[in-house]
């Protein structure tokens, strides 16, 4: 399976560029590879968060049965 890639241009300060060169070298990768990996992680985290949010909303919409039995109606509780 061939995955098409596209180049992206970014602007970094000289100080940041020097630090990222060192970081990439320590990880035995290129700056491009390092940034691509970090963007992939960021996108994956965002997708996981959105999936978890949808699941939580589905659970809330369904509601929870907490046990117990309602023996009187709301109107009976609020009779004056």
**Roughly how many Å is the radius of gyration?**
26 Å
Please identify the structural class as seen in this structure: mainly alpha
Question: Secondary-structure element order, as H and E?
Answer: HHH
With helices defined by DSSP (H or I, 4 residues minimum), what is the helix count?
3
The mean pLDDT is 92
Q: How much of the residues is beta strand, in percent?
A: under 5%
Biggest pleated-sheet summary: none
Q: Care to describe what's here?
A:
This protein has 80 residues and is mainly alpha-helical. It has a domain at 14-65. The protein has three helices and no strands. It is rod-shaped. 0% of the residues are buried. The mean pLDDT is 92.
Gist?
This protein has helices spanning 14-26, 31-62, 74-77.
Features:
80 residues, mainly alpha, 3 helices, 0% strand
Q: How do the helices and strands line up, and which of them pair or pack?
A:
Elements: H1 14-26, H2 31-62, H3 74-77
């Amino acid at each position: 399976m061939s995955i098409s890639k596209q180049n992206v241009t970014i602007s970094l300060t000289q100080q940041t560029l020097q630090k990222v060169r060192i970081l990439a070298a320590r990880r035995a990768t290129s700056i491009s590879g390092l940034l691509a990996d970090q963007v992939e992680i960021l996108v994956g985290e965002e997708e996981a968060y959105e999936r978890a949010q949808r699941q939580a909303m589905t659970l809330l919409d369904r509601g929870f049965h907490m046990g117990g039995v309602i023996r009187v109606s709301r109107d009976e509780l609020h009779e004056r």
